Amino acid sequence: PTMTSSRTEHGFWLLEAAIALVVFGILALVSLQQYRIQETLQKAQRLQRDEADIREHVLGFLVTQGRLPCPAPAGGQGQENCTLIHGELPWATLGVGETDPWGNRYLYFAASAFTRAPGPGVLAGFDLETGVAPNNAGLANIRNLSVHGGQRIAIDIAAVIVSRGALASARSSDEQENQDNDLEFVSDAESPGFDDRLFWFGPALLKSRLLSVGKLP
User: Fold this and answer.
1) Buried b vs exposed e over 182-210: b needs ≥16 C-beta within 10 Å?
2) Is the pLDDT at 24 greater than 60, yes or no?
């Protein structure tokens, strides 16, 4: 072959190789996006299963013990400690999984009015008036994101469980609100800087559960 045809063939080969690399890159990007979408979906489904399991075990504990479980110390062995109102979910005490889908332990708040052990001759540590004004001191409130007005969406909550999402460290003031050990929490749809997921227990649910098994009034 002539020098010109050799150069032409070499040029075509380089063009074909470049096209192949571009196609490969596009396919790899699509596969990565599909993997991330699938991973996100799987973690969301796992979180739903976790929530259902935790709810079942917390309410089961309530029925047998006549009170809510207390929080566990941060970084501990998952055993409840009733000197605390803020800490981690007592996963060992409850017999549930230790971490959320992102590998973080669930944060847990429980009002002392609902973790108090039953006294002599009674089956529950609280009564029908607990958590109702004026007997609602020490209960939590939940609002939406600051950009959505910071409006309260639930008040006088007995217990709150928080999954901190993909990153355990708070990335916004709204996420910090869920980790600052006060009585205000934030729950809303995922958005930039906020991916916490919360679920909670109101006094009415706890009382109705104990009423149904004859532990109240």
Assistant:
1) ebebbbbeeeeebbbbbbbbbbeebbebb
2) yes
